[in-house]
Amino acid sequence: MCQINYTTEDRKNKPLNQIEMGKIEIMLNECYNATQIAEALERDASSIQKEIKFFSVVIKTNKKCDICKNYEGCKKTGICGNNMLIGHCSKCKDCKIAVENCEEYEPIVKCDKLKGRKKVCNGCPNFKQCRKAKLIYIAEKAWKQHEKNKKNSVKKMKEIENIEYMEALSEKIKHGISPEVALATTENKTGEKISLPTLYLRIDRGLMKCKNIDLRNKLKRKPKEEDKKERKQNIAKHRVNGRSYGDLSEEEKKQKIEGFAEMDTVEGVKGSKLLMTLINRKTSFLFGIPISNKKQENIIKELDKIELKMKDKFKLIMEKIITDNGCEFLDYEGIEKSAIGEEKRISLYYADPYASYEKGQIENQHRLIRYFYPKGVDFAKYKDDDIIEKINRINNYPRKNLGWSTPYKEMEKIIGKETLNKLGFYEIEIEDLNMTRKKVA
Fold first, then answer.
1. Distances from the Cα of 360 to the Cα of 91, 324, 357, angstroms
2. Are 379 and 275 in contact (CB under 8 A)?
3. What is the rounded average pLDDT of the residues 182-209?
4. How far apart are CA 336 and CA 263, in angstroms?
5. What's the rounded Cα separation, in Å, for the pair 287 and 280?
6. Rounded CA gap, 186 and 367, in Å?
7. Cβ atoms within 10 A of the Cβ of 255, count?
8. pTM strictly above 0.85
9. Where is average pLDDT lowest: 149-158, 198-207, 310-319, 360-369?
10. 346 close to 322: Cβ distance less than 8 angstroms
11. What angle is formed at CA 225 by the lines to CA 254 and CA 179, rounded to 5 degrees?
């Protein structure tokens, strides 16, 4: 046997096979202990000891009550039935006939020779002459018990009788709704509960009408390599004088305050049409506005339009805005200047370079936008109304952080339904919501 190919490390966490069990029985019959067997099989000694301890069987000889495990607390009477007069019998444990019919009889193996490393009767010189109950390791019976344990360990999938409920879940998942949102928003009249891992398992095993291809984020992303190079942070002019992310208080950084927003752009093809995005932190409500190019004037123009439609309500959701250091956001004076009065409409703050996590909420929302419009797609091929319709679907998508409410409903509480209608947003019920790329009539 080659030592290189057969090492203990190679067999770590692997179960014993039938051949190894046979060798254990043979070596026990030859009076080897567990440590010596482990060395011969190149296994860990503890695994051999556990194998012998848990898979050895007791061979019963003449039954005697005094060697039974339940002898002390046994109070049984009348086991033998009509074979003896019950009136002459006090307790079954004092009767030789009753012990033969007792179903709960479990003999204890008591022997002075079973001490130290010797745990079984295999290899004992007095094996044939001994009339006591014997503890023996038999490879064939141990293998059968292993196979039985494997079958019993397999978790059976719970059968769910509520077909309508499962079909409703499948239908939502087919429409691009995540399984977690589908579970939270689907009414179950029968009261049968199904967990999120179980739902994913049912999809994997083909027990649902939807498939893995219907799950947007099923494919694993490649892990990003950590950039170990130290990056030099540029202290740009637009980030001085209290406009850096570091100038915000700890509460403003962590808490989802009502008047806080994040701003960014989503680019399709360079030099072509793109999206200006704004998200309110408190409600996760997203504004997605198509603009022709990355010029600073376009950003200011679209903010002016929103302010004129919302008027005094503008500051309720956009009092402070966090953005990145993109060239389209450098004109902080124009962005902060109100289109209605002389006062500032907002206070603009810039995230640190290479720190997109400082405005992580809007970056996360871009994943939903990218599902409708993957990278490299030219926004110029789509009408503005089609793009806004997709943004409206995102705002009607239930969120766990909102208690399974939608950004639209939460924003409606702050600025009202009438203002939302002016901005081109409307409510979509979960039953009518479609999160796939298909065009909805």
1. 77, 11, 4
2. yes
3. 83
4. 13
5. 9
6. 24
7. 12
8. no
9. 149-158
10. no
11. 60
